[in-house]
Structures are given as structure tokens and as C-alpha cells.
């Protein structure tokens, strides 16, 4: 095969790869654009079907219906506060525990790892969990969203695996220079773990942002501790059943929209904040940050 034939084959391969990527992009984006179009389309017209990626009759009534319910602003504030605090605490606790378990001079790391792993396969159950929260005095408090989710064993193992792949010579040289464990963790381990920390931060943030069941269990009678997902779940139930949910101003709005339109508008409301956060974390999803850091 000569050079011209090889270049022609490379061009064909590139064209095929580009076509494949375009198809994958369309398949990925179409469902989201379809949901977005339905959320902005007139509810009565949506029942006819046939909505693709553009609304036939543009309207903001679906979103106006959602925000006509009381509790949405309080739920949004609590969800943002819960997501920010829960993510920071979750990432720090997971990284600190992972660093401890990765230490070779920590003699109990093996049986501690086994003990932690057992919690991934066995749990006390819903009723014992509720009784524990009640005995701890967390029922009806904002802290019930943060304290039970402080440490995720899965995130600990993910970060520990990443730390195990870091050059041990970095820690040894820091000890020779007189650095203590906290300095090594804060100045060396954390900066090098930015990719994996960004990954678990996204997982933790999405988990806190999408959570609503714990609100239903522990804070359903505390309006000041409600969350956005729980309030939107009640909005969706109200539109499906036609019942009013606390706000007398929302009953007329419910009658003018279909549950399908409300469902799509709710999907956009809960998805957009995460989509806005992702670009800031994407740049950390890279490998090889320690390549060349140490010459062995």
C-alpha cells in the first residue's frame, strides 16, 4: 500500500468517525431538546403529539404553573444549601478517610476496609434508620440532610484507589523535608487528586440535588426545611390528581395544563442547574496529572 492509498484510507476512517460522532450527538441531544420543546409548548397543543425539537405554540404557562405553588422558593434555597454543604463535607470526608486507608503505616487499614465494604452489602433498613434519626434528634431538622450522608464508602474506595496510584516518593520526600501528615494531605494529595475529587463531587452534588425521599420521611411536616425535589413531586401529584396542594392560587393553573407538560417543565427545572455546574468540573476529568512528577 503506497502513501496516497494510506492517506485515502485515513480520510475515509475520519469521515466515518465524524459521521458516527454526529449520529451519537443527535441521539444524545434529541431527547433533551424534545423535553425542552414540550415544556415550552402549549399544554392543549401538546396532547396532539408530534412535538420534535421546536415548540409549535410557544408559551411559559407550564413554568408559571409550577412556580404558582408555594414552597418552591424555600425548597430551592434549601436544595442549593444542601447541595453545596453536602458536597463540600462529603468530598472532604471521603478524601480524608481515603488518605488514611491508603497509608502503608496504618496497620488497621485492611480490616477497616473490610468493615467499610460490609456496609455496602448490608444495611439496617428503613425502620431502624428512621429510629436512629429520631434518637439522634435529627427529625425535623436541616442537619438530617447532611449528617447521614457525610461519608460514602464507595467514594472512599474510589479516592483511595486513585491515591494508591500516586508516586509514593512524593510523600516520602515531603516527610524528609519535615512535612507532617496534614501538610502532606493538604498540600500534595488534594491537589493531585483534583480529577477524582471533581468526579465524586459531581456524584455527591447530583445525589443531594435529586434527593426528595428523605424530605418525605424526616421533614414532611416542616415547611421551612422542604426541598425543591419534594415540592416538585407534590406539584406533579397535584396536576395528575387535580387536587389542590396548599396554595389556593394554584388550583386554576392546574386545570389549564396537562400532567405531561408539567412533567417536562419539572424535568428542565431540576436538570438545568446540574448542567450549569458540569462545565466547571469537566476540565478536571483528565489523566496523567502526575506524569513526570517523579523520576524513578
TrEMBL record:
InterPro entries on file: MetI-like, MetI-like_sf
Lipid bilayer topology: Multi-pass membrane protein
A GO cellular component annotation in the UniProt record: plasma membrane
GO biological process, one term: transmembrane transport
Domain of life: Bacteria
Pfam families listed in its UniProt record: BPD_transp_1
The name this protein goes by in its record: Sugar ABC transporter permease
Organism: Paenibacillus agaridevorans
Amino acid at each position: 500500500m503506497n502513501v496516497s492509498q494510506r492517506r485515502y484510507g485515513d480520510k475515509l476512517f475520519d469521515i466515518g468517525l465524524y459521521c458516527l460522532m454526529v449520529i451519537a450527538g443527535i441521539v444524545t441531544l434529541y431527547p433533551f431538546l424534545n423535553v425542552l420543546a414540550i415544556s415550552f409548548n402549549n399544554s392543549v397543543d401538546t396532547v396532539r403529539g408530534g412535538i420534535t425539537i421546536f415548540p409549535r405554540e410557544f408559551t411559559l404557562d407550564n413554568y408559571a404553573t409550577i412556580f404558582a405553588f408555594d414552597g418552591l422558593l424555600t425548597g430551592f434555597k434549601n436544595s442549593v444549601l444542601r447541595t453545596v454543604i453536602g458536597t463540600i463535607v462529603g468530598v472532604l470526608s471521603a478524601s480524608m478517610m481515603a488518605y488514611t486507608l491508603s497509608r502503608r503505616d496504618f496497620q488497621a487499614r485492611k480490616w477497616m476496609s473490610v468493615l467499610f465494604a460490609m456496609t455496602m452489602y448490608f444495611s439496617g433498613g428503613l425502620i431502624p434508620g428512621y429510629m436512629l434519626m429520631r434518637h439522634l434528634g435529627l427529625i425535623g431538622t436541616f442537619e438530617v440532610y447532611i449528617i447521614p450522608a457525610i461519608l460514602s464508602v464507595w467514594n472512599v474506595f474510589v479516592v483511595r484507589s486513585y491515591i494508591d496510584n500516586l508516586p509514593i516518593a512524593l510523600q516520602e520526600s515531603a516527610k524528609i523535608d519535615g512535612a507532617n501528615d496534614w501538610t502532606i494531605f493538604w498540600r500534595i494529595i488534594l491537589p493531585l487528586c483534583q480529577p477524582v475529587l471533581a468526579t465524586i463531587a459531581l456524584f455527591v452534588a447530583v445525589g443531594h440535588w435529586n434527593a426528595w425521599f428523605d424530605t418525605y420521611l424526616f421533614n414532611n411536616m416542616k415547611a421551612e426545611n422542604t426541598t425543591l425535589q419534594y415540592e416538585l413531586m407534590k406539584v406533579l401529584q397535584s396536576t395528575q390528581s387535580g387536587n389542590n396542594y396548599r396554595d389556593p392560587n394554584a388550583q386554576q393553573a392546574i386545570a389549564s395544563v396537562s400532567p405531561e407538560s408539567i412533567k417536562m417543565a419539572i424535568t428542565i427545572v431540576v436538570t438545568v442547574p446540574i448542567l450549569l455546574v458540569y462545565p466547571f468540573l469537566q476540565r478536571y476529568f483528565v489523566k496523567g496529572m502526575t506524569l513526570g512528577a517523579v523520576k524513578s
